Amino acid sequence: AKEAGRNAYRFFTNKMNVDVMDRIMVRNSLLRALERREFVLHYQPQLDIKSGHIVGVEALIRWENPDIGIVPPDRFIPVAESSGLIVEIGRRVLQEACRQLKAWQEEFGLADFVMAVNISALQFTRGDLYEAVSSAIRESGIDASNLELELTESILLKEADQALEVMSRLRKLGVKMSIDDFGTGYSSMAYLKRLSVDKLKIDRSFVKDIDVDSEDAAIAHAVISLGHILGLTIIAEGVENEAQLAFLHAHGCDQYQGYYYSRPLPAAECGRLLSKN
Ligand code: C2E
Ligand code: CA
Ligand code: CA
Ligand code: CA
C-alpha cells in the first residue's frame, strides 16, 4: 500500500507515461479521494464585456490531497476518464455546483446567473447524464435555466447520436449548452445549427496573441461573426490582459473570463466578489 501511494504520488507530481500498474494505483487513489471527499470546486467568474458585471461562473475541479496538496485537473481527469471514475466524479461535480449556486442565489439573488459545468464524453456514453443533471437540479432546487453544460466539439463528433438525444432532452428541461474550446475541433456551421447550443467559448489558444497575431485575430473575429449570425452568445476564455479584452470588446464578443479579472477561486472568495457585483 505504501508502494502504491508512492507511485500515485509520482504520477500526480511528474509529467510521465504510466504503465498498467500505475494506472491501477492511480485509480485506487482517485476512489479513495471520492470516499474522503477530497474533490472541491473552484469558481472562475464570467463577465459581460459591455457592463463589466459578473454574469456567471465556471466550476473547475481540484483535488485537495492531504499528502500532495492541490492537484490540478489535467493531472487526474485523464485517468478518471480512462478508468470510468469520471462518471461518479462528474455526478458529484454537478451536485456540488448546483448546491453552491442555490446558496449564492439565496444570499445574493442572481436570478439570471449561469453556473457552467464541464462534462466529459464518458458521462454521455457510460453515465446517465440526463439522470445526473436532472437530479442535481431537483435536489438543489435551482432553476434548470441557471445551469450550463460545457461540452467539447470532440464529444459531439464522437458521440453524435447519443449526445444529440441526451442534449435535446436536457434542453427540454431548460438546461443551457455551450461548446468549450471552440475552434480547436471540427464543427461546421450546419452542425452548430443542428445542435442548438446557446454559447460558443473561444479557446484560449486563439485569445493568447489575439492583439498581435493577425491569424488568431481573424479566427476570433470569424467565430464571433458566425456565432452571432446563429444567435449564439460568444465568450472568450484565457483573457489575461487589457489589450486582449479591448480587442474582444471592439469585435463584439459578449463575455469573457480569465486571469485578467480573476483566477478560479474557492467558493468563499468567489462569494465575496459576487456580493460586490
Ligand atoms: P477548460 O474547461 O478549458 O478550463 C479552462 C482552464 O483555463 C482552467 O484550467 C482555468 O483555470 C484556466 N484558465 C482560466 N483563465 C485563464 C487565463 O487567463 N490564462 C490561462 N493560462 N489559463 C486560464 P484548470 O482549472 O486547470 O482546468 C483544466 C481542464 O480540466 C479544463 O479545461 C477542463 O477541460 C478540465 N476540467 C476542469 N474541471 C472539470 C470538471 O469538473 N469535469 C471535467 N470533466 N473536466 C474538468
Ligand atoms: Ca470549460
Ligand atoms: Ca476551454
Ligand atoms: Ca481545454
Automatic annotation (TrEMBL):
Q: Which residues form the EAL domain?
A: 23-277
Superkingdom of this protein's organism: Bacteria
* Protein's recorded name: cyclic-guanylate-specific phosphodiesterase
Give the species: Marinobacterium stanieri
Span within the parent record: 852 to 1128 of 1128
